[in-house]
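Appendix B, example 12.
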Amino acid sequence: MVIRSVRRLWNQTTSETRFFLSSVAAEAQAFAGSIRSHWGIENPLHWCLDVIFVIFSEDSCRVRSGHAPHNLSLLRRLALNLLRQDSSSGSLKMKRYWAGLDNNFLLQILATSVPS
């Protein structure tokens, strides 16, 4: 299937053609929904781990052997989920930053994972 998309942002227009292989015979509307749902997963999780949490830099991690890549991935996602559960105001990036500077804030973040 071929998807042609046009994006207009301020005074600039860009177009892109993407090709997809699928065994699913779907109408264009349903196929577009599937593509959007894929990126709905990609953007909040993987983008956060690599762009917002620059220190995690998941895409540039050079750990490749044994169980280490899986273990590090689990720890990154655990940290991300704990920061998301915190109810204090601020961006995820700032919460990560403050958790590194302030042990009391770090304990507050970790306490959200303990059942009452």
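The chain has a mean pLDDT of 82. The first strand starts at residue 2 and ends at 9.
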